[in-house]
Design goal:
The protein contains ten helices and two strands. By secondary structure, the chain is mostly helical.
Amino acid sequence: MSDDLIPESPVKRNRMATALVLPALAALLIWCIWLLDQGLDLQLRQFGLYPRELKGLIGIAAAPLLHGDWEHIFNNSTAVVMLGWCLMYFYPRMAGRVVLLTWLIGGLGVWLIGRGGPPHVGASGVIYGMAAFLFTSGMLRGQRTLMALSLLVVFLYGSLVWGIFPILEDMSWEGHLCGAFIGLALAFLHRRVPPAVSDPRPAFLDEEDEEPPAPYLEDDAGDVVDEHELAWKRKLAERAERPGNVSTTWDE
């Protein structure tokens, strides 16, 4: 039986749903922190990332969980769910590593090169890291499915590329740049790690149906006999034996 006819296991059928669990929980955590901050006036932005200041070191871990306004958190949380699901579904073996290293090393990069002034907050650095990793991994591996994912990332988040340039004054382009660089580097370093999906194999007939019957047989003496020639001779013999048929012979 062809492999394509074997029913999928429940684990494989539910993998698309389970891949959404952690990204959804991350988005829920971000929203809960923001709502508590707004409702109780906790002023959590003070725990953001202040470049080259000791108090800003805590922001390396805390900044991705903090956001300024509802538009900021809405855009980031939807990207976390979308890109996080893609990362968990297609690259589950690397998903945690990509998020953690982009979070911490990217945050350290912002602490080193970021501008002073208001604290840097938001999960956009991690988002840039996931987007860069997904796009680059799909291009490097050359699989049709993963390349289609790369094009989808470009279609949905291609405008993010402008965020790595110092265009807007109140935008942490340093965080975007560091996150994208870490995601790009991780894609190259882990290009040998196999993804969780592969290109679909075309469904053909079963292997035993694909093989045509052998046109040659062997007789008792071991000589090769043409089966088509034998069938033709049998038809001639049957016609010669029927009443009323005239057969012609030539004497040697």
